[in-house]
Recover the amino acids of this structure.
């Protein structure tokens, strides 16, 4: 099996790496890129970014939530109610968005997990918010320690930071390949790597990615194709990117939480570990839930503009899960601003699963034609 | 009546309606011998709107705020408090003008599923038919729509904006979800409004002015708590949705003498009705109260007459609603810190924010409390289609309420600002079926 095949195999929950880990240790799910994985590694717990990947129905969840709720939340709740996430020993949620926090309420109250913790993550980034967030991480650590009967020391956190920084360095190297005139890797392959990075132990993922980077050196590039950046709601399914690329383009960059928002910026290794984690995670590439001048819309716009430049992007595809309030407002602003800068854009609304793609294909095809 | 310059069509539409209503009010909602509904409500709301022009003439700073910010803070800064939701809601109450702005916002790229509580105003901005504020202050509750659409408004105006991060947990030591860090964290942020206002607009913080405003606010708060206690009486001493009117008055005018006067009139009317063991329903329509309803969501703004229809048709009195259940306690004025702490608690407890900002248990606790306290026979959740988070737990609320209390809930979808999505006929049919066949 090739390395990329292994990455694709990690897509399903639970995958073979998780099953193997479970033989001796515990697995904790988390729902968002604002949750520091380092804390779980430090406790010798395997953190898995939980989505409904591989689950294709929402019947049970539809009876609990509403068609006005985002499909990601509904599919995920359905997976929970069907017992497909019962392999998790715990789940960490936070006030990421309305749909997910309410999905989590239904999860807790209708199918109680063995352990859960809710982080109240600030919408601001100033010193006061930093102190609050640090306090939240301290509470999380204490809760994990008492429930799982573990001790999380500073040294454990420092080691975990090193492992995760290595992951981030490797992912940065992978993304750097996409800046080239002839990128050596397709966007959908990168999507598989990204999903794998959040679905298996980093001790196994890091060597695999190192090997992949070596292997890619010998690959021919994919030059001459319109270069696209994908911005919006989480894309955990490589197939979605493949549909865009199969129409004659290459996705070279992204700004969503299964992409660059996951790994941009390392945790500082010369600071007290908890302070460094607090700073990195609150100041990471922000999501539209963030409100103040340290992470608000202007900050997000600048990051996207910089990526457009660094990755030689020809056009931006905005995609958002239907009913997503945060991304719909954000895309409204970004589309207007990028238009003023002369960057072609396309805004797509989507389901969580790959369905009804006829319209998406037609619109994407027309957009790619414009970019040629 | 104060004559005002007509400059902002959105504002002027509401003022024009309220001017007429003020004239009509003396003949409405009364019996041969007494006024049943507080006539001051219309006047206070109208004055609040007209004061925008006065503030502009005087060169006052105009601060937009969301309904989760107590206006006392802005009155204390001697600025004009421009509540975005009051504008959007009031326009939805007075007629059909709001749909023009909703359509305009959507034509320009704001998605239809976004909440119209902000979209009305955004459309009015796009049409250049509403005053531009000098700054914005808003709290990150109750929902994502607030959080992102206030960013859209900020982005449009490019004006200084102060955001308050509302933590997800409770601050009440009696609560199972108590978190002792919440109040100090949030009070610091409330305090931060004042240096921000000074830096950006030269507005000086005057502790004496804040105290003066809070004294008036405290009077209104105490009386509001009394009103809410009086509403537990059977039969209900005030007409349906009076508590909502009180909420609107507090949101626009808390910290003013007008607000205190309104609250006093309302409390005295309720107390008098309780003393006489009678009700508006009996006095006005000679009907006895049959069902006590708790309306567990915001009212359908374009259909406020429906609550009166429910009373007359089914004897169903809405004794409490989401916005009317105001738990704001008088603020301790003994020190600046205690005032900021009190204001912080006010925001954390603010109607709709209190139920929405945290886990489902916050909403559930509110439900159990009001159903028990107001001896409700049923609950009605006319869920606004833009309110995704509450729809995410609506079935849970219904199930748990029935399980814990045996009280049934009617759930239905409606757009509380836009009558085109679900019509009055459909809504009334659902309510009719509920009262005639299920209750």
């Amino acid at each position: 099996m090739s390395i990329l095949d292994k990455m694709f195999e990690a897509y399903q929950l639970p995958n073979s790496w998780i099953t193997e880990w479970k033989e001796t240790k515990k697995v904790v799910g988390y729902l968002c890129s604002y949750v520091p994985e380092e804390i779980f590694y430090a406790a010798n717990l395997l953190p898995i970014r939980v989505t409904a990947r591989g689950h294709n129905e929402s019947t049970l969840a539809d009876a609990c939530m509403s068609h006005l709720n985002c499909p990601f939340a509904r599919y995920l709740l359905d997976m929970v109610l069907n017992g497909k996430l019962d392999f998790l020993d715990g789940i960490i949620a936070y006030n990421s968005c309305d749909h997910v926090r309410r999905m989590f309420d239904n999860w807790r109250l209708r199918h109680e997990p063995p352990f859960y913790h809710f982080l109240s993550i600030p919408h601001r980034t100033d010193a006061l918010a930093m102190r609050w967030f640090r306090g939240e991480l301290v509470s999380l650590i204490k809760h994990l320690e008492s429930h799982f009967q573990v001790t999380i020391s500073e040294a454990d956190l420092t080691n975990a930071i090193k492992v995760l920084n290595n992951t981030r360095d490797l992912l940065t190297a992978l993304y750097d390949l996409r800046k080239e005139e002839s990128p050596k890797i397709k966007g959908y392959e990168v999507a598989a790597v990204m999903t794998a990075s959040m679905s298996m132990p980093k001790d196994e993922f890091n060597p695999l990615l190192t090997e992949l980077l070596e292997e890619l050196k010998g690959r021919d590039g994919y030059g001459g194709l319109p270069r696209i950046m994908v911005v919006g709601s989480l894309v955990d399914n490589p197939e979605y990117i493949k549909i865009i690329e199969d129409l004659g383009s290459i996705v070279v960059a992204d700004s969503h939480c299964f992409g660059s928002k996951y790994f941009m910026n390392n945790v500082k290794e010369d600071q007290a570990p908890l302070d460094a984690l607090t700073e990195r995670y609150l100041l990471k590439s922000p999501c539209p839930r963030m409100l103040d001048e340290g992470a608000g819309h202007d900050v997000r716009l600048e990051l996207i503009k910089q990526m457009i430049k660094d990755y030689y992007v020809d056009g931006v595809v905005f995609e958002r899960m239907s009913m997503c309030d945060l991304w719909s407002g954000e895309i409204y602003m970004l589309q207007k601003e990028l238009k003023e800068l002369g960057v072609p854009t396309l805004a797509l609304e989507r389901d969580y699963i790959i369905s009804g793609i006829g319209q998406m294909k037609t619109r994407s095809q027309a957009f790619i034609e414009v970019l040629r | 009546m104060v004559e005002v310059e007509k400059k902002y069509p959105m504002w002027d539409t509401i003022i024009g309606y309220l001017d007429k209503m003020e004239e009509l009010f003396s003949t409405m909602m009364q019996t041969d011998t007494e006024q049943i509904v507080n006539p001051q409500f219309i006047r206070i709301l109208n004055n609040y709107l007209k004061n925008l022009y006065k503030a502009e003439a005087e060169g006052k700073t105009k601060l937009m705020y969301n309904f989760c910010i107590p206006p006392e803070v802005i009155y204390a800064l001697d600025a004009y408090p421009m509540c975005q939701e009051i504008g959007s809601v009031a326009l939805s109450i007075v007629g059909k003008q709001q749909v023009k702005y909703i359509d305009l916002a959507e034509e320009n790229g704001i998605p239809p599923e976004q909440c119209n509580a902000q979209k009305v105003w955004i459309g009015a901005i796009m049409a250049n038919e509403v005053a531009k504020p000098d700054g914005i202050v808003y709290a990150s509750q109750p929902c994502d729509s607030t959080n992102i659409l206030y960013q859209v408004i900020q982005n449009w105006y490019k004006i200084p904006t102060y955001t308050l991060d509302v933590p997800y947990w409770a601050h009440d030591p009696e609560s199972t979800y108590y978190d002792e860090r919440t109040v100090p964290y949030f009070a610091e942020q409330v305090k931060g409004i004042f240096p921000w206002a000074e830096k950006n607009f030269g507005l000086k913080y005057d502790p004496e002015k804040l105290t003066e405003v809070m004294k008036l606010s405290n009077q209104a708060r105490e009386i509001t708590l009394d009103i809410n206690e009086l509403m537990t009486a059977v039969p209900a001493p005030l007409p349906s949705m009076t508590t909502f009117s009180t909420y609107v008055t507090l949101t626009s005018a808390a910290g003013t003498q007008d607000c205190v006067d309104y609250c006093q009139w309302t409390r005295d009317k309720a107390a008098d009705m309780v003393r006489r063991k009678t009700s508006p329903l009996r006095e006005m329509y000679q009907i006895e109260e049959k069902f006590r309803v708790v309306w567990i969501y915001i009212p359908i703004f374009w259909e406020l007459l429906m609550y009166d229809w429910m009373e007359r048709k089914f004897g169903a009195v809405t004794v409490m609603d989401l916005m009317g259940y105001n738990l704001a306690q008088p603020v301790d004025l003994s020190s600046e810190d205690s005032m900021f702490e009190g204001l912080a608690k006010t925001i954390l407890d603010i109607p709709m924010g209190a139920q929405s900002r945290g886990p489902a248990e916050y909403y559930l606790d509110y439900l159990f409390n009001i159903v028990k306290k107001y001896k409700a026979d049923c609950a009605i959740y006319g869920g606004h289609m833009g309110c995704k988070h509450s729809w995410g737990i609506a079935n849970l609320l219904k199930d748990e309420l029935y399980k814990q209390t045996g009280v049934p809930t009617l759930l239905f979808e409606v757009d509380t600002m836009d009558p085109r999505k679900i019509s009055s006929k459909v809504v009334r049919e659902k309510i009719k079926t509920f009262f005639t066949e299920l209750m």
Summary: The mean pLDDT of chain A is 97. Chain A touches chain B through 48 residues (CB under 8 Å). The two ends of chain A are 36 Å apart (CA to CA). DSSP finds 16 helices and eight strands in chain A.
